[in-house]
Amino acid sequence: MRVRFAPSPTGALHIGGARTALYNWLLARGAGGALLLRIEDTDRERSTPENVEQILDSLRWLGLDWDEGPFFQGERAERHREQIAALVRDGHAYEDEGAVRLRVPEDGATVVADVIRGEVRFEHAAIQDFVIARSDGSPLYNLAVAVDDLDMSITHVVRGEDHLSNTPRQVMVLRALGAEPPLYAHLPLLHGPDGKKLSKRHGAASVEDLRDAGYLPEAVRNYLALLGWGYDETTTFFTTAELVERFSLDRVSRAPAVFDEPKLRWMNGRYLRELDEQELARRLEQRLGRDGLRAPVRIAREKLQTLADFWPLAAFLVERQPFDEDAWGRIMGEGDAEREAAERLARARSALAGVDPFDEQPVEQTLRGLVEELGVKPKAVFQPIRLAISGSSISPGIFESVALLGREETLERIDAALARVREG
RNA sequence: GCCGCCAUCGUCCAGGGGACUAGGACGCCGCCCUCUCACGGCGGAAACCGGGGUUCGAAUCCCCGUGGCGGUACCA
After folding, report:
1. What pLDDT does residue A46 have?
2. Nucleotides of chain B within 7 Å of a protein C-beta?
């Protein structure tokens, strides 16, 4: 089995393209065959180093490798011209105002064998003699693709459904060249939540967007595999090895799918929590360009769905944060309420000052003791502390956070909050 | 216009003549857990596009309609 992924080098790798790449990769790996990469671009102007590198980067990030390539279609122009000349010589094509057209028979039909859709029949009467070379002699897509697939001995062409209507033309070129076409599989398209073609308006639209949004490549692989394919009634999580083993084209659905980011977020959170602490810290440190995040990761990880969620939640553990005014208003209140909250905070300060060792357990014991002593609800004591140390109403567990900050830092931050109350 | 593809909960995927009172997941709602936010647990609402046919029996097969999408370039 020889399979190719053939992106157009127009820049970012679209999510739909990423799924096509994944399916090709799973197929190649599952069969122990080769995946080859061809940059589909008869007009080599578009294959700028930046555009190509962007695509390769996205594929690498996804963990999809290739055995051969990338090949550039633009570099094969001589071979394409050769075959165009051969088609004219053999009477399969003719010149028309400088351009070269392939002869399409008046009668009959070309049947495309599609693994996903069955046999799709295209009547010749509805297809014009189509152009395979421009007046300047340069080859057109439908010619170039057919010649390349043939020369590269491609056995399976897996691509988006938008190519289905072009396929009979490619099959006709192949037959005119005396070759049998490969097996085709046209994947359903991917849409945004509004049913329209997926675009930046919908949020993430490219692999780059997904990386920036803090998704893990292993989660993206799992999610993408399930957009248009299902293994059985209940299985949702697949290791990549399982995908390689179980993926098959005959279970790919025919209907378009909607890219649903909330489900990816959920799945990403599951993958995030399965990562061991050290590995998660490593990825976050790399992403944020910082060191020493191991401890914050330990206490914040259960609340994360994406890597991007970490810093807003845990930055206060590394550096002091300004107070969130809304949170202050909600937690401290005004007037008497604020004075009472401040009083509880002051009591917490005194209690914490005497905790030794300043570890999670003793901190919890002390603060719960204070709650009992004051006869108030736990949050009446804990929320002002949370606000004082984090500046926010949301944080990892209060005991872990306080213990991690240490006595000195915790007391300083509480003092700063109390000073703010005094100063109005 | 013409050609082609498609149609099960809001979304993704199962089910492909009887096991369907249609299954799982996300999301949503409720309850539990709880120091916030999450996580986790339990429960709930939620779908076979419409009409004809075939059949003892249709979500499943066929036809028509409707709707969505794609193509119809000297683009890829």
Report:
1. 80
2. 2-8, 10-15, 23-27, 34-40, 68-76
